Amino acid sequence: MGLWSTKSMASLQNEATVEGEHSLKRALGATNLVLLGIGAIIGAGIFVLTGTAAANYAGNAVVLSFILAGLACAFAGLCYAEFASMIPIAGSAYTYGYATLGEFVAWIIGWDLILEYLLGASTVAVGWAGYFAEFLRKIGIPLPKEISGAPYAFANGHFTPTGSIVNLPAMLLIGLLTVILVIGIKESARFNNVIVFLKVAIVLLVIVFGFMFVNTANWHPFISPNEGPGKYGWSGIARGGGVIFFAYIGFDAVSTTAQEAKNPQRDMPIGILGSLAVCTVLYILMALVMTGLVPFRQLNVPNPVQVALDAAGPGLAWLNYFVGIGAILGLASVVLVMLMGQPRVFFAMARDGLLPAVFGKVHPRFKTPYVTTILTGIVAAIPAGFLPIEELGTLVSIGTLLAFVIVCAGTLVLRYKRPDLHRPFKTPLVPLVPILGILSCGYLMWNLPRQTWERLVIWMVIGLVIYFAYGKTHSKIGRVETTGNTTA
Question: pTM score, two decimals?
Answer without folding.
Answer: 0.77
